[in-house]
Amino acid sequence: MPIIDTVYDRGQFFVPLSLNGSAPHYFIFDTGAGVSAVDAGLAAELNLPVIAHTELAGTAGVLMVNQVRIARVAPLRRGRRVDELALYGLMPTTNDLSKFHVPVPNTREAGLLGNDYLQGFVVQMQFNPPLLDISRPTGFVPAGVDVDRFVPFVLDDNNIVRLQGVLDGWMTVDLRFDTGSNTMTVPSPYLNITTPMWRALCDRHPEYQVTDSLKATGIGGEVTLQIGHIQSLDVGLLHFDNPSVIIQPPVGYFGNPDAVGFIALNLLEPSGWATFDYPNGRLYL
């Protein structure tokens, strides 16, 4: 397994990539992005050709954006390209990512590395110290995993990682797994849910109430998020008591009646590591 360069901060892995042989640019490892994204300013600097104009539904709104083509994308190890992990012809969307944080001095966020790249690999992550191993599938169980400790997942119609969870022991729901979501100033464990999910939970438990709120910036702009608490969350082998819930307003993607909630890496940090086996649809714990 090639160990690639990475930085971990606030629940996100930042991966330096070489684009068409360029100097390193930091992308977020993002299982919540079906299509990768690149900063619009960087796309212009690199003269990436525009191949399409498409709609992008973010957490805070719906945008019309360009789609460009990158001839060759490769992660780095010790600052050098890892050619065996190169992907040719990646077609990310473009967006202004200049407001997003990168924990590297004098560096801006360059993009999101989504499932259009990741879906062909096995990705093992370690949280402390932070490591990312990426390898092509071998047909065998990934090295070092417990074959009985996994949560099954699929790529949904939008090519985003999706698995099942159970809220309060009775509400079975689909949840996206979004490694691109940074850790919020909310007591962990927590998950993000849709407004209809919150209403259904409150119908069963009238005592549930919103206890706080926060502002967050996402694709499409800024949103105000309400915060509550529920009794429990189960995701496969994982059980969490009294998790916080962040209630997404019905805008952007969450304005879609088929929208689902999502979980992020804050739930996996205590376990120390995890492995996304994309070809076999298994998240090993």
Question: How would you describe this protein?
Answer:
- With 285 residues, the chain is mainly β.
- It has 2 domains: 3-135, Acid Proteases (Cathepsin D, subunit A, domain 1, Beta Barrel), CATH 2.40.70; 150-284, Beta Barrel (Cathepsin D, subunit A, domain 1).
- Helix content is 7%, strand content 47%.
- It contains 3 helices and 27 strands.
- The chain has helices at 40-45, 115-118, 195-204; strands at 3-4, 7-9, 12-19, 25-29, 37-39, 50-57, 62-68, 70-77, 80-81, 87-90, 93-95, 109-113, 122-127, 130-135, 150-152, 154-155, 161-167, 171-177, 190-194, 212-218, 221-229, 232-235, 238-241, 244-248, 261-263, 273-277, 282-284.
- The strands form 5 sheets. Strands 2, 3, 4, 5, 8, 9, 10, 11 and 12 form a 9-stranded mixed β-sheet that branches. A 6-stranded antiparallel β-sheet has the order 1-14-13-26-27-15, with no helix packed on it.
- The radius of gyration is 19 Å and the shape is globular.
- The mean pLDDT is 92.
